[in-house]
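Students often ask why we bother predicting the structure of a whole assembly rather than each chain alone. The short answer is interfaces. A chain on its own may look different once its partners are present, and contacts between molecules only exist in the joint model. In this exercise we take two input lines together and write out one structure for the complete complex. Read the inputs first and try to guess which parts will touch.
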Amino acid sequence: MNIIVCVKQVIDPEAPPSSFKIDAAARKAEMRGAPLVIDPYGEYAVEAALKLKDAGGGKITVLSLGANLQREVVKKPLAMGADELILLEDEAYTGGDAAATAIALAAAIKKTGEYDLILCGREASDTNAGQTGAGIAELLGLPCVTLARQIDAAGSALKVSRVTAAGYDIIELPLPAVVTVSNEVGEPRYPTIKGIMAAKKITPVVWKPADIGLETAKVGAAGRRAVVEKLYQPVHEGKCDFAEGDTPEEAAAALAGKLREAKVF
Amino acid sequence: MADYQGVAVYGEARDNALAPITAEGLGIGRKLADTLGQELACVLVGASVGGLAPEAFAGGADKVYVVEDPLLKDYRTDAYVSVMEKVVKQAAPAIIIMGQSDTGRDLAPRLAFRLGAAVTMDCIELEIDTASKRLLATKPVYGGNALAVYTSQADPQMVTIRTKAMTPLAPDASRQGEIVKVEAGLDAAAIRTKVIDRVTEEVAGIKIEDAAVVIAGGRGIGSAEGFAQLEALARLLKGAVGASRPPCDNGWMPDTVQVGLTGKIIAPELYVAVAISGSSQHMSGCSGAKTIVAINKDAEANIFRHARFGVVGDWKKVLPAFAEKVKELLAA
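Now the answer. The structure tokens for the assembled complex follow.
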């Protein structure tokens, strides 16, 4: 099976919130002192692809879009066990919305020619939108299941378990298809030393907008439909009333007393 | 753009009634429609959903579009996108509101791409810009570390709304409206997914999304056995037990009780966070709680920036004494 996994380079969402800073003028955020990472939701998609490869073989191509993509960051899926890396890397790709991103990714996927399954994370940890997978599916005319917690291949079809509020649905669909992957799929594996060495030897393919047949007016900020008017940090008052005591037990009793007094219970 | 008028809310059913998220959508939808001086519609899609129309009128709708077809029994992307595309072309609403639910998460983006429109997901605030009359949609980004305000120049302007972020209207049973039936016009062969099974993994007792009191534990609880202590406190306060993501990922607790951006978004009266550091992604799920109480051994933990009351200490020592005192005070 030919699997394409879309991943994104993002600021580290696991970095402490105190290192989070906003550049309001540029409507962008950064994590001071924290390195860039592969989006964790994308890593779950990589893990899902590797599980399918473990079970039935195949080739995993990783696809990433952006500018200034750090090679050691975007190569992590290769170190985890993916086979190839295609980068849509150009200044023109930046500042796009879900539409601009999905249009470029779909064009690149089409150019690869051979694909059975396209995997994306359920959403990206920066925009928290969760639109790219559905967008790629619509643009390529493919069926799509979102929020997968388990994917099993069954010949030319897939059986996908999809997370719901009450539990999960089991859905069958034909290939080729798009599936977006949720964290319930299981912790992404760590890169092995062998994987890291192999990843070093792989040179990523880089495609500019012209390489995937797109005018620059269709990609990045120029191709977007939704615009960020304002980006800001919500203020938390931070007025915590700490219950104290000489021992943890005393503090705990004092807490219960405070809550009772405030009629919280 | 002038062709698009009014606000439409996608109606979801739960237990043969309108889902709370739809009542919330109608609440904010009514406000937006009134600001624009335009109509509020509700769109009901399913095998047999027309009976919910009076509830939609009572919740604020002026008009209800009903699409019924046996093929619409289960939610399936291809069928629902096709039907919604048809309704949108007929109704031409300027704004479409859906819930950030299992269905909305799947349907909204695909429909937006089908329509050549843009959708802003998981909004917590919606208002009409006074000058441009366009929709300003505010949503958390960067896992809740920041808020972004989006606009779209394309019509219809689509959004999904976060659970419990909007206020429903008090139902007014005397409100009437117009029902418009729309043919589904579906081709069974064009629906590519098949729902084989729907598995319910509800935990025993009160549902976390309905509970007035939620006792939640984080990575620091350390094991499934640790959560049994949280359950004892929850029983005492007639509440439910929740968890941040690590306990669910580790299998200590079922995924259905995960509180956070990718789990349940809840707004209980009381939320007790035990050994939870309070990442933005977790806070997205519980910041609507009326009172947050935190027990954490790290005085610098982010949770204390959100908590109204707190204790710095090891939960293993604090929790039993806390539960004991609560029991005593309740008995008094």
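Check your guess against this: Chain B has two domains: 7-190, 213-331.
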